Amino acid sequence: QVQLVESGGGLVQAGSSMSLTCLAAGRVLTIDTMAWYRQTPGKQRELVANIHPDGRTNYADSVKGRFTISRDLRKNQLHLQMNDLKPEDTAVYYCNLEQRIGGAPPKDYWGRGTQVTVSS
What's the helix, strand, coil split of the chain in %, to 5? Predict the structure, then answer.
């Protein structure tokens, strides 16, 4: 089992920066892929960015050039640095860990989410 806890959300003005952190506990493996998702009311949860075990990253087009995902394997932490925030970035941000062990189907773990609100 893996437990994920997000921190760092809050209310900021447009153009500001904010950093989110996800602390992973339990059976965390270096081969796990981790990601940040976000969700607004009435919409599906969407991928913001992910980072693979080899360090490859992917970003949603809407955040490219503004957000940076990083991972500290020793501390089992995932970070999301968000710069030049826009009101449309307002959402609940969720930490995700995808774990693949052997030939078993991948298993997803989720944090409870942290609210990010960007005022115009």
Answer: 0, 55, 40
